[in-house]
TrEMBL record:
<dbReference type="GO" id="GO:0016020">
    <property type="term" value="C:membrane"/>
</dbReference>
<feature type="domain" description="Formamidopyrimidine-DNA glycosylase H2TH DNA-binding">
    <location>
        <begin position="1"/>
        <end position="92"/>
    </location>
</feature>
<keyword id="KW-1133">Transmembrane helix</keyword>
<comment type="similarity">
    <text>Belongs to the FPG family.</text>
</comment>
<keyword id="KW-0326">Glycosidase</keyword>
<dbReference type="Pfam" id="PF04138">
    <property type="entry name" value="GtrA_DPMS_TM"/>
</dbReference>
<dbReference type="GO" id="GO:0006979">
    <property type="term" value="P:response to oxidative stress"/>
</dbReference>
<protein>
    <recommendedName>
        <fullName>DNA-(apurinic or apyrimidinic site) lyase</fullName>
        <ecNumber>4.2.99.18</ecNumber>
    </recommendedName>
</protein>
<feature type="transmembrane region" description="Helical">
    <location>
        <begin position="254"/>
        <end position="273"/>
    </location>
</feature>
<keyword id="KW-0472">Membrane</keyword>
<dbReference type="GO" id="GO:0003684">
    <property type="term" value="F:damaged DNA binding"/>
</dbReference>
<dbReference type="GO" id="GO:0008270">
    <property type="term" value="F:zinc ion binding"/>
</dbReference>
<dbReference type="GO" id="GO:0000271">
    <property type="term" value="P:polysaccharide biosynthetic process"/>
</dbReference>
<feature type="transmembrane region" description="Helical">
    <location>
        <begin position="209"/>
        <end position="230"/>
    </location>
</feature>
<dbReference type="GO" id="GO:0003690">
    <property type="term" value="F:double-stranded DNA binding"/>
</dbReference>
<keyword id="KW-0238">DNA-binding</keyword>
<keyword id="KW-0378">Hydrolase</keyword>
Length: 382
């Protein structure tokens, strides 16, 4: 991966890749396949500056917060470089025998027992835990009692973690959330942990599904507008079953309703593709427009073919799936069989459309395979 000082380093692109990962923020920023050169000290300092808890899932980071963290890491490394690096002993010196003095500017690392430089809260011993990257992650806590005295005992009842978005904690966001005893509330840590785990694993996919649904919903409106206009031009939906031509050698024929389905699909498909490319699967990793459009059109065509047969089944009186009287009829209005069959067929095919497009059409920006993407970038950089 590139380091933050490389002219090709794109903070927004790196932030998007970090948010697409299924891990914690500290683990992500230490991963050299994402950002090169960030070590444990600079990661702690960057998290402190950005007011982000090191165990916060990357999928929960907002776009601005993620960019702020990347920018903070760049600032910390730039300041350290100006001050000759971070040296704690005489083993690491420059060519003039001078040690780096950025250690004097550290806000978190190695400052156990000292006052926080942001809020003045005395600090307790750091709690060090090994990270997946093989280094150490640090969690500093404010002292709960008077300096020199043991902290007070917590409430006997189950404490509930309360975090207020209106007012920040008294110290940096790398503190553990403040624990306030609420006797009337029963906590459910197992349920909360399960929700956090599901959000961490599938949050990005669920957000994409919601966006795809919004795009699909607006595409349905486009589809229905084309359907209504074409039927109006043909004298109303009462004429939707008019035969356009017969298929030679078969007892089948092509009716106007099939033409409506095909034209409405093509218009809505182009609309949906462009909006999904700009918004749902937005990324700097997109392939060329035509390279992604043809798979999208192919997937949509298969879905349209399935939908067309579903629509025929719902509008053909001899079909077991025919939409029955008196709930539906051939005339215009809210009970028009022509319009309802169009809408039902779209709703059935849309979820399958999303899954195939995510796994195939927009596979270059799939959020659940960031490691493979980063590995390719490393090879390209080399």
């Amino acid at each position: 991966a590139l380091d933050p000082f490389d002219p090709r380093f794109d903070q927004s692109a790196v932030a998007r890749r970090m948010r697409a990962r299924h891990t914690t923020v500290k683990r992500a920023i230490l991963d050299q396949r994402l950002i090169s050169g960030v070590g444990n000290i600079y990661a702690d300092e960057a998290l402190w500056r950005a007011r982000i808890h090191f165990e916060q899932p990357t999928a929960d980071l907002g776009p601005r917060k993620a960019v702020q963290l990347i920018r903070s890491a760049h600032e910390v490394m730039a300041e350290a470089l100006e001050q000759g690096g971070t040296s704690f002993d005489s083993l690491y010196v420059d060519i003039d025998g001078e040690s780096g003095y950025f250690a004097r500017s550290l806000n978190v690392y190695g400052r156990a027992g000292q006052a926080c430089r942001r809020c003045g809260t005395p600090r307790r011993d750091d709690h060090q835990r090994p990270s997946a990257a093989g280094s150490v992650r640090r969690l500093t806590r404010p002292v709960l009692g008077t300096p020199g005295q043991p902290p007070p005992r917590r409430h006997a009842r189950q404490p509930v973690s309360i975090e207020s978005s209106a007012a920040p904690l008294s110290c940096e966001a790398v503190h553990e959330p403040q624990l306030i005893p609420l006797p009337e509330v029963q906590a459910c840590p197992e349920g909360s942990q399960m929700i956090r785990e599901l959000t961490r694993r599938y949050g990005n996919t669920m957000r994409q599904l919601v966006k795809f649904g919004v795009v699909g919903g607006s595409g349905v409106l486009v589809n229905m507008v084309v359907t209504v206009v074409m039927n109006k031009l043909n004298g109303g939906s009462i004429n939707a079953q008019n035969i356009l031509f017969a298929i030679k050698g078969t007892p089948f024929n092509i009716r106007f309703t099939v033409l409506v389905w095909i034209v409405a699909f093509l218009v809505a498909n182009l609309y949906n593709f462009q909006l999904n490319r700009w918004w749902t699967f937005k990324s700097s990793k997109h392939a060329g427009w035509w390279k992604e459009f043809w798979p999208f059109l192919a997937v949509g065509s298969v879905a349209a073919l399935v939908g067309m047969f579903l629509k025929i089944a719902m509008t053909n009186p001899s079909s077991p799936f025919f939409l029955p009287e008196p709930h539906f009829h051939e005339e215009t209005g809210l009970r028009s069989r022509e319009y309802w069959s169009q809408l039902i067929a779209i709703l059935i095919t849309m979820p399958i459309n999303f899954i195939v497009n995510k796994l195939w059409t927009f596979r270059s920006v799939r959020g659940h395979a960031p490691v493979h993407t980063d590995a390719a970038e490393v090879q390209a950089a080399e």
